[in-house]
Amino acid sequence: MAIAAALLLAGGGCGGGTQIDTGNGKAVALTKDQVRKTLPDGGAMTDWKASARPATVKMNKLFRSAVCPIKDNAGCENSRFYGTATFRRDDSAAAATFLIVAYDSEQAAREAYDVLWNYYGKRTGQRARTFSLGPIGEKRDARIGPSGFHGEPSTITQARVGTTLLWTMTDSTDKDKNAVTEDSARDLATMLAKRARQAQNGDTPSATL
User: Is pTM, for the whole model, over 0.85?
Assistant: First the structure.
Protein backbone atom coordinates (compact mmCIF):
# COMPACT_ATOMS: atom_id res chain seq x y z
CA MET A 1 0.00 0.00 0.00
CA ALA A 2 2.94 2.31 0.60
CA ILE A 3 3.96 1.79 -3.02
CA ALA A 4 0.47 2.68 -4.17
CA ALA A 5 0.48 5.86 -2.10
CA ALA A 6 3.87 6.84 -3.49
CA LEU A 7 2.61 6.36 -7.04
CA LEU A 8 -0.35 8.58 -6.36
CA LEU A 9 1.83 11.27 -4.86
CA ALA A 10 3.96 11.23 -8.02
CA GLY A 11 0.99 12.43 -10.06
CA GLY A 12 0.47 16.14 -10.40
CA GLY A 13 -6.90 17.69 -21.79
CA CYS A 14 -9.04 18.71 -24.06
CA GLY A 15 -11.96 20.07 -22.04
CA GLY A 16 -14.87 17.97 -20.91
CA GLY A 17 -17.63 19.04 -23.25
CA THR A 18 -20.98 17.30 -23.47
CA GLN A 19 -21.83 13.91 -22.09
CA ILE A 20 -21.16 11.04 -24.49
CA ASP A 21 -20.40 7.34 -24.27
CA THR A 22 -22.99 6.90 -21.54
CA GLY A 23 -23.92 3.51 -22.99
CA ASN A 24 -26.25 1.53 -20.76
CA GLY A 25 -24.23 2.35 -17.65
CA LYS A 26 -26.26 2.24 -14.47
CA ALA A 27 -23.77 4.46 -12.61
CA VAL A 28 -23.61 1.97 -9.74
CA ALA A 29 -21.08 2.25 -6.93
CA LEU A 30 -18.33 -0.31 -7.49
CA THR A 31 -17.17 -2.80 -4.90
CA LYS A 32 -13.53 -3.23 -4.00
CA ASP A 33 -13.40 -6.41 -6.10
CA GLN A 34 -14.90 -4.62 -9.10
CA VAL A 35 -12.31 -1.85 -8.83
CA ARG A 36 -9.57 -4.48 -8.73
CA LYS A 37 -10.93 -6.16 -11.85
CA THR A 38 -11.29 -2.82 -13.64
CA LEU A 39 -7.54 -2.23 -13.37
CA PRO A 40 -5.79 -3.60 -16.48
CA ASP A 41 -3.88 -6.84 -16.06
CA GLY A 42 -1.10 -8.35 -18.12
CA GLY A 43 -3.61 -9.87 -20.53
CA ALA A 44 -5.09 -6.46 -21.29
CA MET A 45 -1.74 -4.74 -21.82
CA THR A 46 -0.32 -6.09 -25.06
CA ASP A 47 3.43 -5.37 -25.34
CA TRP A 48 3.57 -4.13 -21.73
CA LYS A 49 4.75 -5.78 -18.51
CA ALA A 50 3.54 -5.07 -14.99
CA SER A 51 6.19 -3.16 -13.04
CA ALA A 52 4.35 -3.01 -9.70
CA ARG A 53 1.70 -5.23 -8.21
CA PRO A 54 -1.78 -3.72 -8.69
CA ALA A 55 -3.23 -2.33 -5.46
CA THR A 56 -6.87 -1.78 -4.56
CA VAL A 57 -7.64 -0.41 -1.11
CA LYS A 58 -10.50 1.02 0.89
CA MET A 59 -10.22 4.78 1.06
CA ASN A 60 -9.14 6.04 4.48
CA LYS A 61 -7.42 9.11 5.88
CA LEU A 62 -3.96 8.04 4.67
CA PHE A 63 -5.04 7.34 1.14
CA ARG A 64 -7.28 10.39 0.89
CA SER A 65 -4.16 12.43 1.64
CA ALA A 66 -2.32 10.64 -1.16
CA VAL A 67 -5.09 10.78 -3.75
CA CYS A 68 -6.38 14.25 -2.91
CA PRO A 69 -3.42 16.26 -1.56
CA ILE A 70 -5.53 19.40 -1.51
CA LYS A 71 -6.86 21.40 1.44
CA ASP A 72 -9.20 19.18 3.47
CA ASN A 73 -8.54 16.42 0.90
CA ALA A 74 -11.05 18.06 -1.41
CA GLY A 75 -12.15 15.76 -4.21
CA CYS A 76 -12.18 12.65 -2.05
CA GLU A 77 -15.56 13.29 -0.44
CA ASN A 78 -17.73 10.16 -0.57
CA SER A 79 -14.94 8.14 -2.19
CA ARG A 80 -15.00 4.43 -1.38
CA PHE A 81 -11.97 2.74 -2.95
CA TYR A 82 -9.01 3.46 -5.13
CA GLY A 83 -6.80 1.29 -7.25
CA THR A 84 -3.52 1.69 -9.08
CA ALA A 85 -1.46 -0.39 -11.50
CA THR A 86 1.79 0.38 -13.31
CA PHE A 87 3.33 -1.09 -16.43
CA ARG A 88 6.48 -0.69 -18.49
CA ARG A 89 6.60 -1.23 -22.22
CA ASP A 90 8.49 -4.32 -23.31
CA ASP A 91 11.25 -2.20 -24.83
CA SER A 92 11.49 -0.12 -21.60
CA ALA A 93 10.89 3.06 -23.57
CA ALA A 94 7.73 4.08 -21.69
CA ALA A 95 5.88 3.59 -18.43
CA ALA A 96 2.15 3.78 -17.74
CA THR A 97 0.24 4.23 -14.49
CA PHE A 98 -3.50 3.73 -14.05
CA LEU A 99 -5.49 5.22 -11.17
CA ILE A 100 -9.12 4.69 -10.22
CA VAL A 101 -11.16 6.40 -7.53
CA ALA A 102 -14.59 4.85 -6.95
CA TYR A 103 -17.28 7.03 -5.38
CA ASP A 104 -20.58 6.15 -3.76
CA SER A 105 -22.59 8.03 -6.40
CA GLU A 106 -22.38 9.61 -9.82
CA GLN A 107 -22.96 13.01 -8.23
CA ALA A 108 -19.94 12.61 -5.94
CA ALA A 109 -17.72 11.72 -8.91
CA ARG A 110 -19.10 14.64 -10.90
CA GLU A 111 -18.44 17.12 -8.10
CA ALA A 112 -14.88 15.85 -7.62
CA TYR A 113 -13.92 16.03 -11.28
CA ASP A 114 -12.82 19.65 -11.67
CA VAL A 115 -11.30 19.77 -8.20
CA LEU A 116 -8.95 16.91 -9.00
CA TRP A 117 -8.22 17.92 -12.58
CA ASN A 118 -6.98 21.25 -11.27
CA TYR A 119 -4.37 19.22 -9.38
CA TYR A 120 -3.56 16.29 -11.69
CA GLY A 121 -3.70 18.36 -14.85
CA LYS A 122 -0.54 20.19 -13.78
CA ARG A 123 1.51 17.01 -13.86
CA THR A 124 2.81 17.55 -17.40
CA GLY A 125 4.16 21.04 -16.68
CA GLN A 126 3.48 24.57 -17.83
CA ARG A 127 4.55 23.89 -21.42
CA ALA A 128 2.00 21.11 -21.87
CA ARG A 129 -0.87 21.38 -24.31
CA THR A 130 -4.31 19.82 -24.33
CA PHE A 131 -5.46 17.17 -26.77
CA SER A 132 -8.73 15.40 -27.48
CA LEU A 133 -9.55 11.98 -26.04
CA GLY A 134 -12.66 11.53 -28.12
CA PRO A 135 -15.91 10.02 -26.76
CA ILE A 136 -14.59 8.67 -23.45
CA GLY A 137 -16.93 8.74 -20.46
CA GLU A 138 -19.20 11.62 -19.47
CA LYS A 139 -16.30 14.05 -19.13
CA ARG A 140 -12.65 13.89 -20.10
CA ASP A 141 -9.42 15.92 -20.25
CA ALA A 142 -5.90 15.25 -21.47
CA ARG A 143 -2.54 17.02 -21.62
CA ILE A 144 0.85 16.19 -23.12
CA GLY A 145 4.10 18.00 -22.53
CA PRO A 146 7.88 17.75 -22.06
CA SER A 147 8.42 16.90 -18.41
CA GLY A 148 11.49 14.63 -18.50
CA PHE A 149 15.06 15.73 -17.76
CA HIS A 150 15.86 15.70 -21.48
CA GLY A 151 12.46 16.93 -22.61
CA GLU A 152 10.89 13.49 -22.81
CA PRO A 153 7.12 13.81 -23.18
CA SER A 154 4.56 12.64 -20.65
CA THR A 155 0.78 12.59 -20.66
CA ILE A 156 -2.02 12.78 -18.13
CA THR A 157 -5.63 11.89 -18.88
CA GLN A 158 -8.66 12.07 -16.63
CA ALA A 159 -12.17 10.83 -17.33
CA ARG A 160 -15.39 10.31 -15.46
CA VAL A 161 -17.27 7.10 -16.15
CA GLY A 162 -20.38 6.92 -14.01
CA THR A 163 -19.35 6.72 -10.36
CA THR A 164 -15.61 6.55 -11.08
CA LEU A 165 -12.82 8.95 -11.90
CA LEU A 166 -10.03 7.44 -13.99
CA TRP A 167 -6.50 8.56 -14.76
CA THR A 168 -3.75 7.35 -17.04
CA MET A 169 -0.22 8.73 -16.80
CA THR A 170 2.47 7.87 -19.33
CA ASP A 171 6.14 8.78 -19.29
CA SER A 172 8.79 8.17 -21.93
CA THR A 173 12.51 7.70 -21.41
CA ASP A 174 15.39 9.20 -23.34
CA LYS A 175 15.66 5.79 -25.02
CA ASP A 176 12.79 6.77 -27.32
CA LYS A 177 11.19 10.19 -27.07
CA ASN A 178 8.49 9.05 -29.48
CA ALA A 179 7.32 6.25 -27.19
CA VAL A 180 4.62 8.46 -25.66
CA THR A 181 2.13 10.05 -28.05
CA GLU A 182 -1.40 11.39 -28.03
CA ASP A 183 -2.56 8.21 -29.76
CA SER A 184 -0.94 5.87 -27.24
CA ALA A 185 -2.37 7.85 -24.32
CA ARG A 186 -5.79 7.85 -25.97
CA ASP A 187 -5.68 4.07 -26.41
CA LEU A 188 -4.85 3.51 -22.74
CA ALA A 189 -7.54 5.92 -21.52
CA THR A 190 -10.13 4.36 -23.83
CA MET A 191 -9.36 0.87 -22.57
CA LEU A 192 -9.63 1.91 -18.91
CA ALA A 193 -12.91 3.72 -19.54
CA LYS A 194 -14.37 0.68 -21.29
CA ARG A 195 -13.35 -1.55 -18.40
CA ALA A 196 -14.97 0.83 -15.90
CA ARG A 197 -18.17 0.87 -17.99
CA GLN A 198 -18.20 -2.91 -18.17
CA ALA A 199 -17.83 -3.19 -14.39
CA GLN A 200 -20.70 -0.77 -13.80
CA ASN A 201 -22.86 -2.77 -16.20
CA GLY A 202 -22.27 -5.82 -14.02
CA ASP A 203 -19.93 -7.46 -16.53
CA THR A 204 -16.39 -8.70 -16.00
CA PRO A 205 -14.02 -6.06 -17.45
CA SER A 206 -12.50 -7.48 -20.61
CA ALA A 207 -11.42 -4.51 -22.76
CA THR A 208 -7.81 -4.73 -23.97
CA LEU A 209 -5.42 -2.57 -25.94
Answer: yes
